[in-house]
Write a structure and sequence with these properties.
Helix content: 40-55%
CATH class: Alpha Beta
Oligomer: single chain
Number of domains: 1
Largest sheet: 7 strands, parallel
Bound molecules: NADP nicotinamide-adenine-dinucleotide phosphate
Radius of gyration: 19 Å
CATH topology: Rossmann fold
Distance between the termini: 62 Å
Mean pLDDT: 97
């Protein structure tokens, strides 16, 4: 089913999402392109249809709006042609936590986590029932690095990684592939939208390179794909350390260092 299914891509109007759209069109997949900017989506859909002979539908949706999300969830539940969900729409935010408004961090969390998990939740039971399909969630290496100071953004991306790893464990045995993709700084509009000057970054990956690498991981059915990570062994070491830490937990027993009153 994955080979011939329709791909629904959120945040397809620019950057990583638009590049995924191009790559899946090249592979012959029909597309459903989702974002707020309908004019941009229409232009992309028309071009991809003409160049690749696929069908590309546009759905205008603001994923922070419950009604728009619900419409999309219904489509994911009911449209059996959709076999791949690319959960890509997301935003970043500049400033420190105390500079960011409560409303703006709430919007960020809603877009980067609530919308993403709702869409995954809408499609996953159907895919599991069919025993095939894929869910790709775009995280970020920022989700591994509280030191970078993008605290709320990083927290949303840590959520995306954890969710993807957990869903992978649950759904892979049922035939559904789940991939977390963790880009580092990539040349897209996200920086300008967040009010961050991309020229201040020491290194930036080109978006074509990022998506092509992510698709290598997709074709290999990697649970976690980190295109900028040069040595894969470092990721394996992190996972092994995590397992070792879990092995050191004793549920009923307080650790020695907390037993003294001084
Ligand atoms: P981008 O070019 O700004 O694309 C973001 C996409 O999300 C756009 O298509 C945008 O379309 C859509 N979007 C934003 N708010 C939305 C909303 N409320 N409802 C629906 N769609 C919305 O940035 P990008 O770099 O490609 O980002 C894609 C993903 O990659 C994000 O999840 C981001 O966190 C992640 N990522 C990016 C980088 C990087 O350095 N670029 C690094 C790590 C992770 P509309 O404005 O038309 O709605």
């Amino acid at each position: 089913m994955i080979a011939h299914s329709t791909v629904l891509i959120t945040g397809a109007s620019s950057g990583i999402g638009a590049t995924y759209a191009e790559r899946f069109a090249r592979r012959g997949h029909d597309l459903i392109l989702v974002a707020r900017d309908k004019a941009r989506l229409d232009t992309l859909a028309l071009r991809l249809q003409q160049e690749h002979g696929i069908s590309a539908e546009v759905i205008q949706a603001d994923l922070t709006q419950f009604g728009d999300l619900e419409r999309l969830e219904k489509r994911l539940r009911e449209d059996t042609r959709i076999g791949i969900l690319i959960n890509n729409a997301g935003a970043a935010q500049s400033g420190s936590f105390i500079e960011q408004s409560t409303d703006s961090v709430t919007r960020l969390v809603t877009l980067n986590t609530t919308a993403l998990v709702r869409l995954a939740s809408a499609i996953a039971p159907r895919l599991a029932n069919a025993g095939t399909g894929a869910i790709v969630n775009i995280g970020s290496v920022v989700g591994l690095a509280p030191e970078l100071g993008m605290t709320v953004y990083g927290a949303t991306k840590a959520f995306v990684l954890f969710l993807s790893q957990g869903l992978s464990l649950e759904l892979m045995p049922k035939g559904v592939y789940v991939q977390a993709v963790l880009p580092a700084a990539t040349r897209t509009e996200i920086w300008e939208r967040a009010g961050i000057d991309i020229t201040t970054l020491p290194e930036v990956m080109e978006v074509d390179d990022l998506v092509d690498a992510a698709l290598v991981g997709f074709d290999r059915r990697e649970p976690v794909t980190i295109p900028p990570l040069q040595e894969a062994a470092r990721w394996e070491t992190l996972q092994a350390s995590r397992q070792a830490l879990l092995g050191g937990l004793r549920q009923a027993q307080v650790a020695e260092r907390y037993r003294s009153i001084s």
